[in-house]
Structures are given as C-alpha cells and as structure tokens.
C-alpha cells in the first residue's frame, strides 16, 4: 500500500511579509520530514509537498493557522516512494510566472466550474476550450477538443491571447472561453488576464485536471491520455494513479514507453527531444551521473539526483529553446505584414 501522501496546494492572497514566512515554514516542513517545493510571493503561495500523512497534515495545519491562509485548499494523492529529493521553500516575484504586472487573480479570476459540471460546459458548441499548460504537458494528455496554444512557457501565454483576440482569432469566434490546467493556479491567472483584456464569459476548471481525474469516473470522462505532474511520478491517470511516463534526466521532458525504443534514447543521458542539444562535456557528466545512480541502486541507496549545475543547464537549455521559438514566431509575423 502507498505510504507517501502528496499534497498540491496554492492560494492567491496578499502576503506583504512573505519573506518572513520562509524560515518558519521551512522549519515546520523539516521537523515533520516533509519534502517538495513551496513558492512564496507577495501574491500568495504555491507548491507540492510529500511525506507521511501525519507530517503533511501538520504542515497544512500550520499554514492554515495564518488567517490569510485559513481557506487554503489542497489536492491529495498517494505515491509508493518519496517523489521529491529535497525540500525547497523559495521566494519569488510570482507564484506562477506570467510576467504581466497588476494581474489580480484573487479578485479577477473567471468563474469556477466544478468537475461534475465541466463536461457539460466544454461540450457546449459556443465554448472555446483552451489548455493553458505548456506544450510538453499537453502532448501526453488533454481534454477532447481542447486548443493547445503550443507555448513553451507560461510567459508566452499573453502573446498567444493577443494573437487570437483579433476578429478572426479563436477567442473571438465563440461567446465563451473555458480554461484548464494541472491544479488550477495557471487558470486563475490566465482567466484574470483575459478578463483584464475585456473578455466577459470566462470559466475555468475548479481544482484543475487533478481534481477532475480524482472526481470523474473514467467511463464518464472526456479526458484523453495522462496528466503531467511536477514530481518523480511524472504523470497520473484517472484516480490519480501513477501513469506510464518517465522523465528524461537530461531535458526533463516526459517520455512515453515508445520514446525509450528510439535510437536517440540513452538512459539518463538523452532522448528524442534533446539528443542534439547538449555539449560533449554535458553528455559526459550525464553518463557519470547515471553510473552513480546505478551504483547507488546496487547498494540499495537512493541517489539524490542531478547536481544543481546540471539541473540549471537543462532548464537554461529549455528557456533558450523557448526564446528561439518566440523569435521565430515574431519573424513570421513581420514577414506576413511585409507581404
């Protein structure tokens, strides 16, 4: 039986003293053996943590002891092994980065729609359904008929909205817009952004995909595929059971079983998504890391994962890929205007 409780949580609420909250929260998590990542910013709190049931309950109770977080909600699932290597309580400018100032999800978010009523909404022909997650997340699963903006990061979403807000754009062709994301946090910010741009009928899935998969039985579901999650489970399906996907340790992209049969796949070193993106020096480090992981496994020990500098290099490579894609799109727009 699974022994590790995983809790995904967030709340948009003004926390002017968020810096002062970091150390006490870190201490409470450590004292109860809880690992994962929590982000703190002036606009609220966001993160996923894992530990024993008693430990998670203690951390949640501590967070809710702050009157501003008293109504904090969370979603639970179980894991057979600890899905995180360490604990991080980080200070950020935003708890989910869009890069647009003065967006207030606490007061401007769209209308919540419960999982039980979601199917009816997205089956309405007057509704355009938008998946606000990043492209690599959408590729492994989404709702039937949903639009994929094909963004590499959430910061690209406002640009997509602007492009689709013309008279012939996707967001103007129908009267209503319904948005969804993993746990609900990106939806709150994206619907708030749409409302700030003049859209009136904007809806989002309450509790996100995770709540839907937990609540709606498979035989009634309009979800296709699996849902990417940001921990060592990689993906989950209905009932929040662990999925089939694994993570490429070089680029952090989800890998389907067939990806591992590719000639470009080397365990811990490369995959079809990133086989041509790393330097020989990086590849050498990845191979040494994989060797150490296998040695630790033979000793029945747990390897703590990629060194920090390698994780940063992988993230930087993904950011550079996103930047190049954005530049390419801008060049296409300029070319069309000139034509």
UniProtKB/TrEMBL annotation:
Reaction catalysed by this enzyme: uridine(34) in tRNA + AH2 + O2 = 5-hydroxyuridine(34) in tRNA + A + H2O
Keyword Amino-acid biosynthesis appears in the UniProt entry: no
Classification via InterPro entries: Multihaem_cyt_sf, Rhodanese-like_dom, Rhodanese-like_dom_sf, TrhO, TRHO_N
Enzyme class: oxidoreductase
Ranges for domain Rhodanese: 123-221
Transmembrane feature ranges: none
PANTHER family: RHODANESE-LIKE DOMAIN-CONTAINING PROTEIN 7-RELATED, THIOSULFATE SULFURTRANSFERASE/RHODANESE-LIKE DOMAIN-CONTAINING PROTEIN 2
Role according to the record: Catalyzes oxygen-dependent 5-hydroxyuridine (ho5U) modification at position 34 in tRNAs.
Protein name: tRNA uridine(34) hydroxylase
């Amino acid at each position: 039986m699974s022994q590790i409780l995983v809790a995904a949580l967030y709340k948009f609420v003004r926390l002017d003293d968020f810096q002062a909250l970091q150390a006490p929260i870190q201490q409470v998590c450590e004292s109860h053996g809880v690992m994962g990542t929590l982000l703190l910013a002036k606009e609220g709190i966001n993160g996923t943590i894992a530990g024993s049931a008693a430990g998670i309950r203690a951390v949640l109770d501590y967070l809710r002891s702050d009157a501003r977080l008293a109504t904090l909600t969370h979603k639970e699932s179980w894991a057979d092994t600890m899905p995180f290597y360490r604990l991080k309580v980080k200070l950020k400018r935003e708890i989910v980065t869009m890069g647009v100032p003065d967006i207030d999800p606490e007061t401007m978010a769209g209308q919540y729609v419960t999982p039980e009523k979601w199917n009816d909404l997205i089956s309405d022909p007057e509704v355009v359904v938008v998946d606000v997650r990043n492209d690599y997340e959408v590729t492994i699963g989404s709702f039937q008929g949903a639009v994929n903006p094909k963004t590499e990061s959430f910061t690209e979403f406002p640009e997509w909205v602007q492009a689709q807000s013309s008279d012939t754009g996707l967001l103007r062709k129908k009267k209503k817009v319904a948005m969804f994301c993993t746990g609900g946090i990106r939806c709150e910010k994206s619907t708030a952004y749409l409302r700030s741009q003049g859209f009136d009928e904007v809806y989002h899935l309450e509790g996100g995909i995770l709540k839907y998969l937990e609540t709606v039985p498979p035989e009634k579901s309009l979800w296709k595929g699996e849902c990417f999650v940001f921990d060592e489970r990689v993906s989950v399906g209905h009932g929040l059971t662990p999925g089939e996907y694994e993570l490429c340790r070089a680029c952090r992209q989800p890998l389907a079983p067939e990806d591992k049969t590719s000639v470009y796949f080397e365990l811990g070193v490369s995959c079809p998504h990133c086989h041509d993106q790393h330097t020989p020096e990086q590849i050498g480090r990845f191979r040494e890391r994989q060797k150490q992981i296998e040695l630790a496994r033979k000793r029945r020990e747990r390897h703590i994962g990629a060194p920090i500098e390698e994780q940063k290099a992988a993230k930087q490579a993904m950011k550079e890929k996103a930047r190049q894609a954005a530049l390419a799109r801008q060049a296409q727009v300029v070319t069309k205007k000139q034509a």
